[in-house]
Amino acid sequence: MNHFTDTPGRVKPALLEYLQSTVPTGVRWALRGGKGGLAAWLASATVKDLDLWVHSADISRFLHALSPLAAGTVSLESDPRWLRHLVLVMPARFGHQLIDITYGDLKVGGALTCREELIAVRSGPHGPMLIGVAAVSDLLLRKLMRGKRVEPSRLAEASLQWHQAPEQQRRLWLADIGESLGSALQGSLPATLSGRRISRLQRVAFLLAAARASLAQGGISLVLRRRRRFVLGRRSRVPLKRPVAPVMFYLAGPEAAMLAHRIEQVLSVIGVRTQRIEAGSAVWKRLGRLLMAGVYGQAAIVSDSRRLSRLTSSLFGAPIVIAVNADPEEILKRYYLAAHRWYIDDLALAGRMATGEGAGTHLSLRAASTLP
Fold it and tell me: Which parts of the chain sit beneath pLDDT 50?
């Protein structure tokens, strides 16, 4: 059975129960996406991000509670000028589901949608939920600023939250939106939440305003850094539906063949293709397999003692060295970190993750907890 298929139907409810029982009392957090988003996540038969929000002052405690169990980190974007979030992969008992944790302000790129001081939550059957203008930002504004169509059920839920929000909270939120996106778009939101149809032109206007606000916050360099995942080559999108970087496992010693076979078995379960390069292989065969792995985002398993070229090292990053007694979870953790190094915006941290140094969640915790 593929680890990424929620066949028993209990994996996702069990993950929600785990979060509710594990997150320490007093930590401010909430499920995102509203009732409709949660229902869609529960109904999905495959891996689909579970979106959460955590208060910036509580992110360290939140991660510390989850770190003993999480299998690895596949994203960490910590620059406060843009949306700050990280993505954890949960272990096999939870179907390797993804937890996408936003902390601090709600944003789309660098464009503010709801500052942290205005975010309110209330308890729900599956965990805390966003309410008020935070829910409006999450359900409506996030879609508009990405230029996407807003489903009627989602708009209805946002409208209900808008009309239930305190007047002072709505006024402060609209003032923030006006500063971030402009007065014209600010003025259109109350009408939209009261039933006015959303036009395609309006969606385009929100999309362009979000792009301008993001550029104003971080400039071209930050935009390009956040978009470095869009690379040349037909990248594999397994196992976590993200284009992955090519990865190299470097093996040595008499157990290399046995370990290479174990790595192939572990990665094949999650749909990752491998290219094995053994000692004594012809140069043309070696180069061909390295090229295949590099272009398609596969895993190269190298047991050849010849020195790697500078081009190979820059393409694959630092080789991963696996201990002979490494179990499947350890191999997967190392793969997750290395294959998703493009999604880590702290380059030094990315380097440590690519080599498998320490626990990925511990590194993420340290990075997140030192942010302003």
Answer: 1-7, 230-238, 350-361, 365, 368-372
- 251/299 Cα distance (integer angstroms): 13
**What span, in angstroms and rounded, lies between the C-alpha atoms of 64 and 160?**
35
Residue pLDDT, tens place only, 179-219 = 999 999 999 999 999 999 999 999 999 999 999 998 888 77
**How much is the mean pLDDT over the chain?**
83
Local structure of residue 139 (DSSP, 8 states): I
For residue 144, give both structure tokens: 């508009």
- Helices 256-269 and 328-339, axial angle in degrees (round to 10): 70
Residue of 331, 321, 291, 322 lying closest to 309 (CA atoms): 291
Contact 151, 37 (CB under 8 A): no
The span from the CA of 138 to the CA of 150, in Å, is 11
Measured between alpha carbons, how far is 145 from 16 in angstroms, rounded to an integer?
Answer: 29
Taking the C-alpha atoms of residue 240 and residue 138, their distance in angstroms, rounded to an integer, is 23
Instruction: Give me the DSSP letters along 177-223.
Output: HHHHH-HHHHHHHHHHHTTPPPPHHHHHHHHHHHHHHHHHHHHHHHH
15 with 50: CB under 8 angstroms? yes
